[in-house]
Write a sequence for this structure.
């Protein structure tokens, strides 16, 4: 409300009280002004009331909420259900225009403002997370896999004669399916065993580039993965990509939360070639599944091409979720969450070791993975199926734990793999299980998990029969 109007209300409620009310509204307005001016995540979280007022102002700027607006087009942002209206804060136009998903939509100036602000806040979040080389970003309402495909297709558009993707093997089905959906052919490079860890076979990648770089669309690296695979050696790969003039594509699904990964990305950009990166919004920023960020170290490059290639408009949900989350989190809390995650990893590592030792197991050391850790299951009683341990833990309300054992050959995305899930045909330390310390997890959860792990292993060792699936506990296995 305008100052005059508020002070006028002093005639009704008393001048000095109206002045107080005005001060409060003004400081709230200043926060909004600062956001638009600075284009940064506020240092301290915004209060609910600030967010509500801002959202209402934004919605009022969109044509579907103009008073007495008369819509005569086929896309007028009409919402039938009140629940749906509420869930979308009266925003109905989504993002972009059919020609460019990042374009300003004149009918929806409020929504367009949110899209642009979210991009700036995301770039600021990257800096807070240690990534300081990123110049352009796009938040899309596509989960990571679809964004991987879309970006590969956009690269392919630039290099239509190139068919192959050098794929540093990671056993995450989406990764291969994304290549397949883009109608490309992966050349799988298995990681090599180094101590307990599986690391990028840089030599093999160079060999392929040396022989046939003109056919290679990109080298596809992944910087967040289940242990014992380390995140890829992207600095070395970036140098190769520069030398062989081949695009470097990085799947950084949940790597934003790890400062070391960010640091390596900075160095890879500085010393070599990195074209584009993709991260999940849910895995890094604690929002529901459904969004991802495509970003890169250059303006007017691949991210801009993805904007233009994207067919049609897009849902605004992923953008709004990220926008509101960053406002409610604030810079201070984001930093605190990152710090807590790092400490939790250390805490989990030290304390899980103590539990495992009692049963003759240990953590498999994977120096280049600071999110996920793998632990041996080599001492289970004879004949005991390690996957029963996984379903037992899931039925005891432990989610996220994954058990890997030697398995039959499996076809994923048209490629045959041995021991799929372990990132390697013949890793030495099967079976094992993995757990992770991810953003938002708490030390309390780790304590409860360790207690349940201890109880489960004790029971398996004393009465293995009691820990076998009764009816169809296989169904209890956590889906991947
Ligand atoms: C989660 C994940 C994906 C798939 O992400 P979606 O958001 O489910 O599409 C791809 N690659 C890696 C490494 C992941 O962790």
């Amino acid at each position: 409300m305008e100052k005059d109007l508020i002070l006028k209300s002093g005639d009704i409620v008393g001048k000095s009280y109206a002045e107080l009310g005005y001060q409060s509204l003004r400081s709230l307005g200043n926060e909004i002004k600062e956001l638009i001016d600075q284009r940064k995540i506020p240092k301290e979280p915004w209060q609910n009331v600030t967010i509500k007022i801002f959202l209402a102002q934004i919605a009022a700027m969109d044509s579907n909420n103009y008073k007495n607006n008369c819509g005569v087009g086929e896309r007028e942002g009409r919402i039938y259900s009140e629940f749906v209206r509420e869930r979308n804060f009266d925003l109905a136009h989504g993002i972009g225009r059919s020609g460019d998903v990042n374009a300003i939509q004149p009918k929806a100036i409020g929504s367009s403002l949110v899209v642009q602000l979210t991009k700036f806040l995301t770039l600021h979040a990257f800096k807070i997370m240690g990534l300081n080389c990123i110049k352009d970003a796009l938040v899309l309402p596509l989960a990571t896999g679809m964004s991987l495909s879309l970006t590969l297709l956009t690269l392919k558009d630039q290099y239509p004669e190139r068919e192959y993707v050098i794929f540093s093997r990671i056993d995450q089905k989406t990764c291969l399916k994304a290549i397949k959906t883009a109608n490309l052919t992966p050349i799988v490079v298995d990681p090599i065993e180094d101590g307990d860890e599986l690391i990028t076979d840089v030599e093999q990648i160079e060999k392929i580039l040396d022989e046939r770089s003109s056919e290679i669309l990109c080298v596809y690296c992944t910087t967040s993965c289940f242990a014992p695979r380390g995140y890829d050696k992207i600095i070395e790969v970036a140098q190769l990509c520069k030398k062989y003039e081949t695009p470097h594509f990085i799947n950084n699904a949940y790597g934003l939360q790890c400062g070391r990964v960010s640091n390596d990305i900075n160095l890879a950009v500085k010393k070599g070639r990195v074209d584009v990166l993709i991260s999940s919004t849910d895995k890094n920023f604690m929002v529901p599944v459904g969004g991802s960020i495509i970003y890169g170290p250059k303006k007017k490059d691949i991210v801009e091409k993805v904007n233009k290639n994207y067919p049609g408009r897009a849902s605004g949900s992923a953008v709004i979720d990220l926008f509101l989350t960053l406002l409610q989190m604030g810079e201070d809390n984001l930093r605190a969450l990152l710090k807590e995650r790092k400490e939790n990893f250390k805490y989990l590592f030290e304390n899980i070791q103590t539990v495992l030792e009692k049963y003759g197991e240990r953590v498999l050391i994977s120096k280049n993975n600071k999110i996920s850790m793998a632990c041996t299951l080599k001492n289970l009683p004879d004949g005991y199926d390690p996957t029963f341990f996984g379903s037992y833990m899931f039925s005891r309300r432990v989610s996220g734990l994954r058990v890997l054992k030697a398995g039959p050959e499996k076809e994923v995305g048209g490629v045959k793999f041995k021991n799929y899930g372990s990132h390697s045909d013949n890793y030495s330390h099967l079976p094992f299980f993995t757990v992770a310390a991810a953003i938002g997890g708490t030390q309390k959860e780790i304590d409860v998990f360790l207690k349940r792990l201890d109880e489960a292993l004790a029971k398996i060792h004393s009465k293995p029969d009691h820990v076998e699936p009764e009816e169809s506990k296989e169904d209890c296995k956590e889906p991947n």
Observations:
- The domain at 334-477 is CATH 3.90.1150.10 (Aspartate Aminotransferase, domain 1).
- Residues 143-145, 172, 174-175, 222, 224-225, 251, 253-254, 280 surround pyridoxal-5'-phosphate (CB under 6 Å).
- The CA atoms of residues 360 and 379 lie 6 Å apart.
- Residues 317-357 form the longest helix (41 residues).
